[in-house]
Write a structure and sequence with these properties.
CATH topology of the largest domain: Nucleotidyltransferase, domain 5
Structural class: alpha/beta
Largest sheet: 5 strands, mixed
Strand content: 5-15%
CATH class of the largest domain: Alpha Beta
Number of domains: 2
Distance between the termini: 55 Å
């Protein structure tokens, strides 16, 4: 039974799980004393057989590689439980996630659950314009309360616990949310908050025409001047998450060449095995064929995320979102290799990919 009068001393908790069986893979906490956050911590947990569902990996971006050397839930819980015992616990969406998921995992390993009671901070701020406990997700509540929220860190257990703690503190301080202008879904909020870069079709076509003319005149090679031109020209591209009409997807004019299966490097030692590749733009080979080839080499394709190892940029019809996200990731110090054009694509597929991962 949730208490709607939080104590000034409490612990905010968040869990992320790996699969449909809800095996926990990360726990994050934030400790609050006298309305001040005095510390936070997170634990990675190896789920059984280090198995993850694709859907859950897309949510929190944790992978078997992240927890390959982590302890299992039983060992981690022996460290976590003493911190939580005798503490008032809060989580955002606790009724649907933290309470039942923790109970389920505790029972799996034979731990007692009678003491566990996680209060739900969603109950603190109900929206008058939405059904009960809807439209008040973690990022939406933060938006209504003026709490800074970084969408790129959403679903990191420690970050979510910290934001939950801030929401509970705001309630204790008597702060009232302003729901005006706050979308009713997290997806709508993401689109609203991200800076928008609108690259007009005419300007985009002009960039491509200039690029083609310079290439035909021998003034540039296969490396894409368009990449530097766009990201430096349009305000906001540097270090910004963007939500922009992806010209690359809508103007797709992939080539019709086929993969040379005989030359494809599918060896266990090929540098793409286990890597995550983001793709934007068109190549001499169709996107479908490229993705099939990468899968055969043991790589996976995904959007531009913190788990991306290489960004593959086509010769034309390049989408701004992935370019801007690439800059944001690299500016954070994350190593993301960059391959541009058909020659780099061929190098990746046919045995010269190691050069993209060398220091």
């Amino acid at each position: 039974m949730n208490t709607l009068t939080p104590s000034p001393n409490f612990i905010a908790i968040d869990v992320e799980y790996a699969d449909n069986e809800q095996h926990i893979c990360q726990i994050g906490i934030a400790k609050v004393e006298n309305l001040e956050i005095i510390g936070s911590h997170s634990w990675l947990i190896q789920p059984p057989c280090d198995y993850y569902d694709e859907e859950q990996m897309r949510v929190h971006h944790l992978t078997p590689e992240d927890t390959a050397h982590a302890a299992d839930f039983e060992l981690v819980w022996q460290e976590v439980q003493p911190i939580l015992l005798m503490s008032e616990l809060w989580a955002h969406n606790a009724a649907s996630t933290e309470q039942p998921v923790l109970e389920k995992n505790l029972r799996m390993y034979g731990f007692n659950t009678d003491w566990l009671c996680v209060n739900d901070s969603r109950d603190l701020y109900q929206r008058p314009d939405c059904p009960a406990n809807s439209g008040n997700s973690l990022p939406l509540c933060c938006k209504a309360l003026g709490i800074e929220f970084d969408d790129t860190q959403y679903h990191d257990a420690k970050y979510d616990a910290l934001k939950c703690a801030e929401i509970v503190i705001a309630h204790l301080k008597g702060q009232q949310p302003d729901w005006s202008g706050v979308p009713k879904s997290t997806e709508q909020l993401r689109k609203q908050q991200q800076p928008k870069l609108v690259l007009e079709m005419g300007k985009f076509a002009a960039h491509q025409k200039l690029q083609d003319e310079m290439k035909n005149a021998g003034l540039v090679g296969d490396k894409l001047d368009l990449f530097a031109n766009i990201t430096s020209t349009y305000e906001g591209a540097q270090s910004q998450m963007v939500d922009v009409f992806d010209r690359g997807d809508q103007m797709q004019k992939d080539g019709s060449d086929l993969i040379d299966i005989a030359r494809l490097d599918t060896s266990d030692g090929n540098p793409l095995r286990g890597k995550v590749v983001a793709i934007t733009g068109a190549f001499h080979i169709s996107r479908t064929e490229i993705e099939r080839a990468l899968e055969a080499m043991g790589a996976t394709t995904d959007g531009m995320t913190r788990n991306t190892n290489i960004l593959l940029v086509g010769n034309r019809n390049v989408g701004l979102p992935k370019l801007a996200k690439y800059e944001k990731q690299t500016n954070k110090g994350r190593k993301v290799a960059l391959a541009i054009g058909d020659d780099d694509l061929d190098a990746l597929l046919y045995g010269d990919g190691q050069k993209f991962f060398s220091e």
